[in-house]
Amino acid sequence: MRRRERLLGYWIACDNPAGTERIAGVGYDYIGVDGQHGVMHRAGWQTAMLAVDARQVSAGVLRVPSVDPIAIGTALDSGARGVVVPMVNTAEEASIAARACRHHPRGTRSLGGPVRGELRMGSVPAEVDEAVACIVMIETAAALENLEAICATPELDAVYVGPADLSVALGARFFGDPDVAEALEDALKRITDAAERAGIACGIHVLKGADAKRRLAEGFTFATVSSDITHLQEAAVTHLAAARGEA
C-alpha cells in the first residue's frame, strides 16, 4: 500500500469465521472486516483475524467504529495488518488515528505484549509500526472541505472513500441517486488527486469486480469488492429464480 501498488480486497460483514476463512483463501490482497456497521462486535475481531490468517493468503484489515485510540489499539492487538477509521472530518482526527497506530515517539500506541499482534508482527515497536497501515475514510462534507490537510497528515498511509455516506453528504436521497452522480464523480477525482499529491494511497468500496477494475484504472490504488452478506443474498435469489424457472 505504501508503494501504491494496486490492491484488491473483499468485505466481511457477517460474524462467520468459517465463511471468512474460506473467502480469505480465494486470492484477494486483503480482507476487510467491518467492526462498525457489520454484525461483528469487538469480541469477534480476533476470531476474524485468526480466520483470515489461517489461509496465509490475504492481509486482515479491520474497520473500527470510530476515531478511538483504544478501539484502534484493540484491532491491531487482534492481529489486524491495518485499520480503517470511519467518519474522519479533520486533520486533527486523522492525526489521532494515525498516531494510535504507532508507538512512541511516532505515536501513542501501547506495546501489546504477548497477544496476536506480536505473533503476527513481532515485538520491536519500530518494526511493528512499519507492518501496519492506518487508513482513514473520506465520507463527509467536512472531510471534503479538509481534504488536503487530511491527506497531508503525518503517519497516515491512505484515505478510503465510503461512497454511500459521501453520496449522502453531497445531497443524495439514497445511495445511487442519479441526481448526485456527477457531483460524486467530481469528488472522487478530487480525492484521488489530493492523495496523489500527498504521496499516499487512495481506496474505494465498490459493488462489483468490474467496478473495482474501472476505479483502479481511474487512479485509485485499492478497491474493496461488495460484501459477504450481499453476495449471500444475491446467490440465494439467483438460485431461487432458477429453481422456479424464472431466470
Characteristic terms for this protein:
247 residues, single chain, Pyrv/PenolPyrv_kinase-like_dom, metal-binding, 12 helices, 8 strands, lyase activity, Aldolase/citrate-lyase_domain, alpha/beta, eight-stranded parallel beta barrel, lyase
Description:
By secondary structure, this protein is α/β, with parallel strands linked by helices. The protein has helices spanning 17-24, 45-55, 69-77, 91-100, 116-121, 125-131, 141-145, 147-151, 163-169, 181-198, 209-218, 228-243, and strands at 7-12, 30-34, 59-63, 82-85, 133-138, 158-161, 201-206, 222-225. Strands 1-2-3-4-5-6-7-8 form an eight-stranded parallel beta barrel, surrounded by seven helices. β1 (7-12), α1 (17-24) and β2 form a beta-alpha-beta unit. α3 (69-77) packs parallel to α4 (91-100). 47% of the residues are buried.
Instruction: Provide the helix percentage.
Output: 40-55%
Based on the structure, what is the oligomeric state of the protein chains? single chain
SS elements, strand count: 8
Number of helices: 12
Strand content: 15-25%
| Largest sheet: spatial strand order | 1-2-3-4-5-6-7-8
Cα shape: globular
Q: What is the H/E order?
A: EHEHEHEHHHEHHEHHEHEH
Unreliable stretches covering 5 or more consecutive residues: none
Helix-strand category: alpha/beta
Gyration radius (Cα, Å) is 18 Å
The profile of the biggest β sheet is:
8 strands, parallel, barrel
Average pLDDT, rounded to a whole number, is 96
How widely separated are the two ends?
Answer: 41 Å
